Amino acid sequence: MKRVSFVLLFAGLVGCDMFTDPEPIQNVLPQVSDTVEAELDVVFDDPVGDFPEEGVAFRLDQLKIMQLGSQDENGFITMLLDAQWVFDVDNFNLNIILMVHSYDDSSGAAEVSVGFGVGGSSTDLCFHKPTRTEKVIVSAKELEMQLGFDFVSIYSEDVDGTSFNCTPAPETPDGVPLRSVTGELKVDASEDGQWAGASGTLLGCLSHAEGEKLCSCVGTCSGKAHEACGGCPDGSAPLTERLGDIVPTAECSSLLGEDAYDLRVDFTGERIPIPEDCP
Question: What tens digit of pLDDT does each residue of 174-230 get?
């Protein structure tokens, strides 16, 4: 709350009589007859509150796949993957964390990044460093941010630490590689102006060629070794095989200049303590 002092001036008109004979009279300027000083409390509304110096982190606690390649949310493969993601999110195997490092509503800019958490609850997550993105500046106004990342690698792991996605190439992170990731993050503010939660959408593009090289498990990695997935956990298979009859789509194919699949997701996010990097 900011306190502002106002000086209120009351002026009286001297020598003006509108109801006497209309004789020419000299114009008389108003004279200050009294001065009253009063203090008023004025509250300037700030729907965001003071942005914390350490930033704000949201864990995506609900995900809904709206499109995967040529299938919409009602497609068989899409529904299977969606159900698996719900299970993995609920069991803290998949922890997508959107980090807002700075926010300035007046300039319409925010600094954000994406990280993937490892841990068993919202309060003990740490960032999986190999798949944490760099900070980027995005458009932000009135608690809405237009997200944009060149590359995001979606990381998830089983309770024993086994990654559900494996890339035989050691220089590539073990995660689903999404390119040209865009979306929107809407912040839900509490009555006292604190950043309480979030919601939004994400669109990412999976290259068909990269999907062929990515070996993925559905649920626990177990079963026979796949000939194309040497060095990856048994039971994993090329992601493009798991997509069945899903085919690439026009939007992402145009963006990447090669066959690619659209992945559209709606989400909500809970505010969590800011994680440290994992050891």
Answer: 999 999 999 999 999 887 778 899 999 999 999 999 999 999 998 889 988 899 998
Fill in the amino acid letter for 154.
I
DSSP one-letter code for 233: P
| 157: DSSP letter | B
Distance CA 212, CA 163 (A): 17
For residues 103 and 124, give the distance between their C-alpha atoms in angstroms, rounded to a whole number: 25
- Determine the Cα–Cα distance for residues 128 and 97; give it in Å rounded to an integer: 10
- Go through the chain and tell me how many residues it has: 279
Q: What does the alpha-carbon distance between residue 272 and residue 52 come to, in Å, rounded to a whole number?
A: 13
Instruction: Supply 224's token pair.
Output: 């026979």
The per-residue pLDDT for 194 is 84
The domains of the chain are located at 2-42, 56-277
pLDDT in tens, 228-262: 998 899 999 999 999 999 999 999 999 999 999 99
| Amino acid residing at 201 | T
Ramachandran area for residue 35 (φ above 0: left; ψ -120 to 50: alpha; else beta): beta
- Beta-sheet pairing, 136-141 with 144-154: antiparallel
